[in-house]
Amino acid sequence: AAGVFVLIGTAAFAQSGEPLRGFVSINGGYQASSTDFRDSIVFTEFVEQGSVDSSYTVKSGPQLDIAGGARVWRALGIGVGITRFSKSGQASVVGKIPHPFFFNQARSVEGEAGGLKREELAFHIQAMAIVPAGERLFLAVFAGPSFFNVKQGIVQKLQYSQQYPYDTATFSGVDTDTPSESTIGFNAGADVGYFFARHVGIGGVIRFSRASVDFTSIDGETLEADAGGVQAGAGLRLRF
C-alpha cells in the first residue's frame, strides 16, 4: 500500500509543479490510547513469603507534537518528529501479608496507589511521501522507527498497620519509585496542511506509535508495559 501511494504521489507531484520543499508542524495533540499492565512482587516477612500485586492504568491525555519533513526526490522525503506525553495514573494494590504467629494464614489488604506519573518522550525518524495538492494543500504519509524514553511510577513496597492479635492488617500506603528506561519502537501516520499564506498555514496529524518497555521491580522481576498509541493533533504549519 505504501509503495502504491508513493507511485501515485510521485505522479501527482510531477503534474502539480508545486515548489514545496519541506514543512514544519507544531501541534497540540491528544494520545487517545490507554494502557494497562500488572506487576507482582514477592517478599519475605515473618519467615514466610508474601506478595504484592499491582494493576496499573495509564489513561489517555494531552501531548505536544513537533515534526518536520523535507523532499529529497520528487514526492519522496525524510522527516523527524518529537512527541511528549505526561499523565498521572494509579494502581490497584492487593497484598498478602504473612501472619507473625501462624503459617499459611496470610492476611489480605487492598488499596489504591495514586500519583504514579508516566512520561513518554519519543523521537521519530520517518520516510515520507509528500504530495502537494495545488498551491495551498499538501498531504504527507510517513512511517519509520521511534526511540522512546519512558518514566513510570511503580509500587516498590506495601505499607500496612496491624494490632494484636494480628489476625487482620490494614492498608496504609505504598513506597514508590519512578525508573526511566529507553527502547525502540515504530511509528506511522499522516499529516495534512492548508496554507492561507505563502509560508504559514494550519493542519492536523494522526500517528500510531508503539514500543514495549521493560522495568525492573524491587525483587528483580521484569515489569513489561506498552508505550505510545493512537495520537492526533492540530496546529501551526510552516513551509519552505
Key features of this structure:
240 residues, mainly beta, eight-stranded antiparallel barrel, 1 helix, 6% helix, disordered N terminus
What would you note in describing this structure?
The chain is built from 1 helix and 12 strands. It is mainly β. An 8-stranded antiparallel β-barrel has the order 1-4-5-6-7-10-11-12. A two-stranded antiparallel sheet has the order 8-9. Strand 11 and strand 12 form a beta hairpin. The longest helix has 15 residues.
Number of helices: 1
Overall pLDDT score: 90
| Span between termini | 28 Å
Main beta sheet: 8 strands, antiparallel, barrel
* Percent range of helical residues: under 10%
pLDDT < 50 runs, ≥5 residues: 1-18
In short:
With 240 residues, the chain is mostly beta strands.
Question: Secondary-structure map with pairings?
Answer:
Blueprint (H helix, E strand, L loop, with lengths): L1 H15 L5 E10 L3 E11 L2 E11 L2 E13 L2 E22 L9 E27 L3 E16 L1 E9 L6 E9 L2 E16 L4 E17 L5 E18 L1
Antiparallel strand pairs: 1-4, 1-12, 2-3, 3-5, 4-5, 5-6, 6-7, 7-10, 8-9, 10-11, 11-12
